[in-house]
Amino acid sequence: MTSITEAARANPAWSALTAISRLERGQRAVVGPRGHADQRLLWMFSDGRPRTLREIADELGLEQSTVNRQANAALKAGLLERSREPGQSAWHFVANESALAEFARALDRHLGLLDRALDALPRADRARFLEQFGTFADAFVEAAAEA
Questions:
Q1: What pLDDT does residue 35 have?
Q2: How far apart, in whole angstroms, are the C-alpha atoms of residue 96 and residue 46?
């Protein structure tokens, strides 16, 4: 009898699964001192626009309770600031300048690593690879949402 993974290796999608696994391993290594939740918040706030918890939840497609926990943890960690307009009940959150500067440095580092990885491909194939990779990623997200 074969093992589960030996049987799965017969599926053509196995190569995609193992490549995604390697990418995820690399992603974890470059996230830096901030986790994915903080990175996602800082990416969103990099446009400089204040948002309420409801707006954050809607934009990220997350439950408001999840956003409340993540935003308050980022606030406590000094990444976000909040303010309330007179007469308003909702807090407005923004990323502070030092958090955005840290995010920009991490983004530059990450882009540099991706550039190094792209250098492994022949220059003439890079644009096509990125187009196909984007198509694959979109189709995977769509399939996962339907599952």
A1: 85
A2: 10
